[in-house]
What does this fold into?
Amino acid sequence: MLENIMPKEPFLKFILLLIFTVLSTHLHAQESDFNPRLISGLKYANTDTQYEDRFPLETKALLPDQNSFNGGYNHLLKHVLPSIFQANAGSCLFMSHTSALEVLYSYSFGKQIDFSERYLMNLSTAGIGDNRMSNWRTDTVYRVNETGQMLQHHQYPFTMGWYKLVNGSKVAATEGEPGAWYSVKFNWVLDNNRINQPGIRMPRLEREILFEDQEQNQWNVGQAPEDIVKRLKDAFQKRKAPIVVIYNHTGFWHAVNVVGYNDNADSAGCPFVSTYKEKMDNRAEQIREEARAATDPKERRRLERKADGFNSRGKEVHDNFMRDGGCRGKGVFYVRDSIYPVESQPLYDYDPTRQGEEVHLNAPIILREYEWLEQVANHAYQIYFE
It folds into this structure.
């Protein structure tokens, strides 16, 4: 098993997981149904589970070709900056918002600025704007209104470092210190001196909720209204502004920035939704293996319930997908994501004091079929300047 051959050093494990993903992609090239535009990414659970304790889920995304852009809604594409690979930081909500602000600022003022993901993360850590959070899933952008600014990436870069948990909070630590871990989760460590730097002044931001899950549950599936695709397309036409979508990423909740669409682009068999049930069932079986090995009856029952939930959501997506006619074959969204690094992008250095932890930036744009939004989205909202 992969767990038995991974090194103990956390950042080396981080790199090897990416290597295994790339090797897996090349091995699949021998299969008759291989699509060279499908790339692999790694998604971790959005929890404080330590890096060594869990392995991420490998998923696929479709890269665009030139035909993917012909006739599409392309107004925002040139304003998109590729994301840093978030690894196990649990930062997708803030990565998607940082991207939305970059796109919005560049489109509005003609100046492309690389904003700091860590700044937004630390506003949350510090509780700045908590009074504005009626639903943290949709209201994160109001934290920026509280300070009226954004820091640039060079002022407060996304990094790797040593941290430990103290009373449930992440604090800076030193290498070799008891309880210390080295990973990108270090970005949650609050540095008041850094977040209080003067930054780029921002106009007041607003968001319009296009769809909000009634239970405010970021894991729900099958809850999107029938006209959800039209809602997003209409919103793009109305404001020419980015849209954040939160959805169930085969058992992990995830947030991305959607920057356009194309009704006529080939959706390549709907690779995300068409494989959804299989991935959910596979993960359910892994959890049942954990349950069978558990010695505590309560923990065993908890894991069995969790596995049942994966099976149930997988079946719900599959059944709804089939009920709605399966893959229509056309129609994609342009998505900026934070979990699909590609070799065509520059290497990003998480820690200039070390060597070996560098990872390529993510693909600037991936494609998600319209059916993705219809079947697994649970929140969608557009961010714009007032």
